[in-house]
Amino acid sequence: MDILKRSSKVWISELEANLDEAWAKVEADVSSKGRAKFVNPLKLCMFKLLIKCFLGVDVSESPEIAESGVSIVDIWFILMLLPTISQNVFQPLEGIFIHTFAYPSFLVRRGYNKLADFIRTRGHEVVQRGVTEYGLSEEEAVHNLFFMIGFNAFEGFNLLLPDLLNQLLSDQTGLQDRLRVEARQMGGPVLTFDSVKQMPHIRSLVYETLRFNPRVPLQYARARKDFRLSSHEASFDIKKGELLCGYQVLVARDPVVFDDPESFKPDRFVGEKGTELLKYLIWSNGPETGTPTESNKQCMGKEYVVLTASVIVAYLLRRYDSMAGDGSTITALEKVK
Asked: Which CATH code fits 8-35+159-335?
């Protein structure tokens, strides 16, 4: 949380600078090839942003990390999660060969060590703050920073942003036109975290994307004490020490709470009724109306996620008069004149 607070002054300016670079690449590809993939430019944009904001350094200081950092984190992330994700192949082969054992660390060790060394040397000031202010060893500080940047932040955004832009590109019922008016008329001439707080429909699009496709579908915990767990229809006695699993997809599509839960409704969280629904949106390992603490394990960067995603949507709608595409591909862009 300390790092997030310290980075808040440069977060938006760095984000916009990196977005300018990423979408200039997309525009060039659309112009020359008639279509462009936006996922990789967006990944590089977010990687550069997070390195700058978390470590206080420009990733270009290491050409090797600038070129391979994204793939290093992606491979590490995939191999870490692969044993937990269903691959929809014939059982029991999947269970035996994919979900029975941890993958050997040598598969990612070389790349991991390169990025860890970059954090240790280039981010020395931040690492030492972990040592002197929080009592961590240098190695603990480095690996915690790696995990926070790579898993919590970078890959979290990489799961959210393509889904979010896909919904924007689908342009259901004139969505782009409605949001474009809000993006250009609200919040003043300069985008900030405060300005997008004045854009309820754009934030609702982000919230609905998080509801419709939660980033972390399964969550586990052990009961700290005996208690009774109640649903709409039943109650269950839970004993201290029992392992609990929450399936967020089921909660996010609860028909008792959400009207027509299987449909994507970008305006679901607008207005008084929509604001009331936020206490049932738990994408961040807790209610959207909750506050992260040391004991509740709620995502400490949840506000940054929603506001950053909202800034990206507002940025695109201010930059382009129209956008078209599908999935991860842009097929047409009309830049504002």
From this structure: 1.10.630.10
